[in-house]
Amino acid sequence: MTNASAPAPDSALPLDMIIFGGMGDLAMRKLLPALYMAYLHGNLPPSTRILSTGRQHIDRKAYLAHVEAHSRGFIARENFVEKTWDGFLQLLEYVELDVQGAPDFSALAAASRPGAERVFYLSTAPSLFTTICDKLAASGLVDANARVVLEKPLGTDLASAIEINEAVGKHFAESQIYRIDHYLGKETVQNLMVLRFGNSILEPIWRAPNISSVQITVAEEVGVGSRAGFYDGTGAMRDMVQNHLLQLLCIVAMEPPTSLSPDAVRDEKLKVLRSLRRFKLADIARDTVRGQYGHGVSGNQEVAGYLEEKNVPPDTSTETFVALRAHIDTWRWSKVPFYLRTGKRMARRSSKIVVEFANPPFPLFPGAPGGVANRLVIELQPEEAIKLQIMAKEPGTGMQMQQVALNLDLQSAFQQRRAEAYERLLIDVVRGRLTHFMRRDELEAAWEWADPIIDGWATLGEKPHAYAAGSWGPPESFALLARDGFSWVE
Ligand code: NAP
């Protein structure tokens, strides 16, 4: 997708990609492998250099050894080309920098080429963003060609999100800020926009009353792992719902944009966020479910409950699961429930959007199997797929119906490789394309909706419902849909 209004980077300039947190988990598992893939496919300008920063007192050789040991393994075997990898390593430099300790960034300024086009990837805790941006600016590293990429979490509530936005906005124009939500980089999510707005058959029925409900699930099989220190202060609502699930909801619910320019698309997403009905205390009690996993079986192994995990405070009420019923108060979506669900230690890793269409007004065929006749299922994880469930006649002498899936098999329709979300988004950053990144007002509107729910839970003071690790969440989550005559599609 093109996006005309993003500032076109001056491709004649050398590109310096500067990663803060260059030795961290995200850099090793995602960023460097994604940059390698971009390099492998010729999507990095030949002049690119990657300057990784970190606090450790090591030289370039030791850094490369660290990358060999901790990053190389995250490149799929079929994509690994020894010679290309060696070429990629040549792009890497290491700059020792404690952003809090250093009075300024002169070491970084000395390493970055004068006049280079600079991309700053802030892969650190957000508490460092202000210091990093202030010192980058003071060191003369921020100019009109510079871009900054911000990793989530972008705040823990509206006030902290505003604080981060203000601090970054002091030195970078909005058109230079890339707030990353890697769900927006997924092929299938981008394809949903094409499906909706590149065809004319769906749009007329893409509304109430033709659509009876929408479900968005992002289920993780893993538990909190070693991230309890971070996670316990965050919870599933802040970690997943406020960002990934709301962004998916926006793509499902937005009106057709007038163009693919970043602002045209983001204006429409913003309207959705602003139309989300606000939860009052009674709505929170009725339409939201918080859960916390207990001991159970996951992937054939017995696993600990959240409270038994390392570094989890005793008796904490942090939720590892959320299900809720949201409403978008617009003509298009009037009375259509949007069910959102996310959790850790669920039965399996599975992210999908399910759009359920209204059933035919009366049952013509005897012995209909019941349930929902038509569903559009957009699977995002672990595999990306789009399926349309329709009713078809069972072969035979009668008129028996069965649900069958029209499978839009994109893997065989297109021979091209499907890039990972981080690779695609990093290429967008390099090329100055902002469409698939969140704008400031979107982020703040998402917090405006999420904050009252989080505050309401605190006011209600209820403990999260227990669910067994390896299950689909607490029974209350099923009851939430059953009440309206729906059920989760696993
Ligand atoms: P991490 O492994 O803890 O890495 C954080 C990095 O920050 C480390 O490399 C550390 O450098 C650096 N850092 C900390 N204090 C510093 C200082 N004073 N000066 C310079 N560097 C400093 O964390 P991560 O998992 O990579 O996550 C990074 C960010 O991305 C976090 O905000 C996280 O929430 C977000 N995120 C992570 C993931 C993921 O899958 N990991 C996914 C989505 C979002 P040293 O090497 O010197 O310790």
On the 0-100 scale, what is the average pLDDT? 93
In total, how many beta strands? 17
CATH topology of the largest domain: Dihydrodipicolinate Reductase, domain 2
**Count of helical regions:** 15
The CATH superfamily label of the largest domain reads Dihydrodipicolinate Reductase, domain 2
Rg over CA atoms, rounded to whole Å, is 24 Å
- How many domains, as an integer? 2
Largest sheet: 9 strands, mixed
> Termini distance?
31 Å
Name the strands of the widest sheet in spatial order.
16-15-14-13-7-12-11-8-17
CATH architecture of the largest domain: 2-Layer Sandwich
What proportion strand? 15-25%
Taken from the alpha-carbon principal axes, the silhouette is globular
Based on secondary structure, the structural category is: alpha/beta
CATH class type of the largest domain: Alpha Beta
Report on the structure:
- This protein has 490 residues and is α/β, with parallel strands linked by helices.
- It has two domains: 15-179, NAD(P)-binding Rossmann-like Domain (Rossmann fold), CATH 3.40.50.720; 184-482, Dihydrodipicolinate Reductase, domain 2, CATH 3.30.360.
- Helices cover 33% and strands 20% of the residues.
- The chain has 15 helices and 17 strands.
- The protein has helices at 25-40, 60-70, 82-90, 106-111, 129-138, 158-169, 187-197, 228-231, 235-253, 262-275, 281-287, 410-413, 421-431, 440-460, 475-482; strands at 15-20, 49-54, 92-96, 117-122, 147-150, 177-179, 211-219, 288-294, 296-298, 301-303, 321-326, 338-343, 350-357, 375-381, 385-393, 401-408, 465-468.
- The strands form three sheets. The protein has a nine-stranded mixed beta sheet with strand order 16-15-14-13-7-12-11-8-17, with helices on both faces.
- A hairpin with a 2-residue loop joins strand 9 and strand 10 (301-303).
- Helix 9 crosses helix 14 (440-460).
- The chain is globular and about 75 Å long.
- It binds NADP nicotinamide-adenine-dinucleotide phosphate.
- NADP nicotinamide-adenine-dinucleotide phosphate (NAP) binds next to helix 1.
- Residues 20-21, 23-27, 54-56, 97-100, 123-126, 128, 151-153 line the site of NADP nicotinamide-adenine-dinucleotide phosphate.
